[in-house]
Hints:
Structural class of chain A: mainly alpha
Helix content of chain B: over 70%
Low-confidence stretches of chain A: none
Number of helices of chain A: 25
CATH topology of the largest domain in chain A: Cytochrome C Oxidase, Chain A
Helix content of chain A: 55-70%
Number of domains of chain B: 1
Number of strands of chain B: 2
Distance between the termini of chain A: 62 Å
Strand order of the largest sheet of chain B: 1-2
Largest interface: A-B, 32 and 39 residues
CATH architecture of the largest domain in chain A: Up-down Bundle
Oligomer: heterodimer
CATH superfamily of the largest domain in chain A: Cytochrome c oxidase-like, subunit I domain
Largest sheet of chain A: 2 strands, antiparallel
Order of helices and strands of chain B: HEEHHH
Strand content of chain B: under 5%
Mean pLDDT of chain B: 95
Strand content of chain A: under 5%
Number of strands of chain A: 4
Radius of gyration of chain B: 16 Å
Number of domains of chain A: 4
Shape of chain A: globular
Order of helices and strands of chain A: HHHHHHHHHHHHHHHHHHEEHHEEHHHHH
Mean pLDDT of chain A: 94
Number of helices of chain B: 4
Amino acid sequence: xxxxxxxxxxxxxxxxxxxxxxxxxxxxxxxxxxxxxxxxxxxxxxxxxxxxxxxxxxxxxxxxxxxxxxxxxxxxxxxxxxxxxxxxxxxxxxxxxxxxxxxxxxxxxxxxxxxxxxxxxxxxxxxxxxxxxxxxxxxxxxxxxxxxxxxxxxxxxxxxxxxxxxxxxxxxxxxxxxxxxxxxxxxxxxxxxxxxxxxxxxxxxxxxxxxxxxxxxxxxxxxxxxxxxxxxxxxxxxxxxxxxxxxxxxxxxxxxxxxxxxxxxxxxxxxxxxxxxxxxxxxxxxxxxxxxxxxxxxxxxxxxxxxxxxxxxxxxxxxxxxxxxxxxxxxxxxxxxxxxxxxxxxxxxxxxxxxxxxxxxxxxxxxxxxxxxxxxxxxxxxxxxxxxxxxxxxxxxxxxxxxxxxxxxxxxxxxxxxxxxxxxxxxxxxxxxxxxxxxxxxxxxxxxxxxxxxxxxxxxxxxxxxxxxxxxxxxxxxxxxxxxxxxxxxxxxxxxxxxxxxxxxxxxxxxxxxxxxxxxxxxxxxxxxxxxxxxxxxxxxxxxxxxxxxxxxxxxxxxxxxxxxxxxxxxxxxxxxxxxxxxxxxxxxxxxxxxxxxxxxxxxxxxxxxxxxxxxxxxxxxxxxxxxxxxxxxxxxxxxxxxxxxxxxxxxxxxxxxxxxxxxxxxxxxxxxxxxxxxxxxxxxxxxxxxxxxxxxxxxxxxxxxxxxxxxxxxxxxxxxxxxxxxxxxxxxxxxxxxxxxxxxxxxxxxxxxxxxxxxxxxxxxxxxxxxxxxxxxxxxxxxxxxxxxxxxxxxxxxxxxxxxxxxxxxxxxxxxxxxxxxxxxxxxxxxxx
Amino acid sequence: xxxxxxxxxxxxxxxxxxxxxxxxxxxxxxxxxxxxxxxxxxxxxxxxxxxxxxxxxxxxxxxxxxxxxxxxxxxxxxxxxxxxxxxxxxxxxxxxxxxxxx
Lengths: 834, 102
């Protein structure tokens, strides 16, 4: 143990510390609190509660589907409404339930289990929640208005293009889901940074709770996996709104590009959902088996394997589209191989139960339900990974059954285990006996009765997404059985919800740490206080009963003596304490930002494109305000964290959480740009409508403008470096000003290039060039804003020898803008020359 | 954090190799490489196999050079390196086993 662990603070009165911290960390009372809360506990619970509401709505839609299919000539729904309902069921369950649920669990749990007071970016948590709520509401309202998406949850082109879906149905999906995805990327950024930097002192990565590894894997996958979907949605919306032909075969597009982009997101998505659930299992199983996890290293290796391999499987969703055998075989092999790390985890969990003394408590029942269900889903997954079988079963009810086994087995059962396990920490109460067990059996029997038989229905040839089957009497009985058992499952979920509500309001008060867990999440009073820990734990506290020790302030950084929300920031690998982050207080900015972003999406949806610049301006103004409250206008003294341990505040260090967040954001940005390059390469090589028509652009003029833009961006990168280096002098202002000028010059050059471009509606190549240019413009505008921020900081005395303001982030962003613009310029040049 | 870079090196190499081979496969099919022959076989297979074997050699070098020891960090480095090698070996083995562009 290091100094931080050895030199603890003297004990204080726990009640005094509790009052002091509660005053600083609590939400505001009433509606102001609802709108302005940024606390991870509140936001995490809101995410989970809202996700459960969407789960209930999606569940009701599934009951409508089952009612329709219970007879061969179901007249319950007409075909158009049926299309909307199955599309909404899938979209709600994937985008509005599963992902937000895991985000909510991560936001609520991670600071507790890692030993921190909050997530790295509390306002980003709140922004993510509001984007999720508003986006989800837009999608839901479309169902009530009768214009819900109706092209299936993966929205394939050409079905979803303007010709075949002329209404706003597809636009609702594309814009609403993209709005919600902002929330997912925001969550991914802050989960990544929180796990790497906001852990208990001296907790190295290799000793952190396995939940941390699972969530780290999840968040990195989200950073890389969500941008393809966002890019695909942008391209399809551009095609629908402005006729840019990315997917139109006659003009150089290809519908397969959509499938590639969608499944580049879609398959990793399965593991994005599974990994947090597996993290919950790896946390719960050892505790309820009264032992330690078997093979920590093997589990981390399995997570590593899953994170990477899951990006090599996406084409197995496209096995029937006519891809050459060799490519099929690459993805078939990868699809089979991914079963290995999954199996490693299953064996680790079984071994852990075998090694320990398992208790058949309610969470353990759900764990056993997971084993039964997920293993069966995994086995049918291996069957579907084999190309010849896949060709037979493709687009049948067999696939529907498989994906429900994987998703309900691999996510819902573990989440139910997690909810029942952590409910005492959430509400401080014990559950009402026996009701939960009844719910479990109803869900388990109902689930398998519904979906096991569906495999057979699929093998009998029933396709997915049909609403009537009058000519196939052999499908009648299995469908009726599925429908009956689905009602049993629905009753189980309703009983589960009732049980949770009873526990919240009528359960008896729970004793502290009811599971006798050694993890830090239980080293606190029940229900969890808003600040988590009155003093922060060190790694050595894990595995010991330190709740009282920490409550009395004997850990690090006791109380809130400065009236700020403070938490410890550590070095990513070793966990060595580095500095103290002062986190933002309650704020209306997140909800205001989400509303301005929402206004953009609504204007797009309404077709009022000419008004969208107003929304963009609003977004810029609100974001400017975010930046304004981030800095400090004077140097602060170091803070005594413990005897002989003094640390600086975050304003006076370079490697801040914000810098880490910027790096994580650029990882997502790089993924988006890489997918754009993939799109260019794919259409150039594979799409039938190529080569593109001759360009009418004056080449020399465009080349000159591109060189001017690149020179300006390069100069901006130099200015950003100089501004940071000269931050203690008046020259910082001058350098920031030159950065502003260089960005304006680059934008002017881009405007010149845009004015002379080929019509982007003519051919996919021209449309892609428009997107490449748009990508550069957006990044230069952001670089310009950061340069302006840096200039304002320098002028307002918010930079000094110790305070760098926005300069490091500006520099990072400016470099990225320069490099990506240079690559785009080279690509276009190569297209012209080759 | 050097150990983390070592741990990620193997899977990253697999990701890069998989992407390059898949891209070359697409380019080769579009540009008619299967119609070209070399003294040791069909041009496309030869090119893909050369890239694959080169990648496997890099994996082998990685395993040869990786830090070894009893610590958990060293074990994770070893796991990462082997995951990369096995993934590259198995997922790209179809280069030698299947037809190319149909």
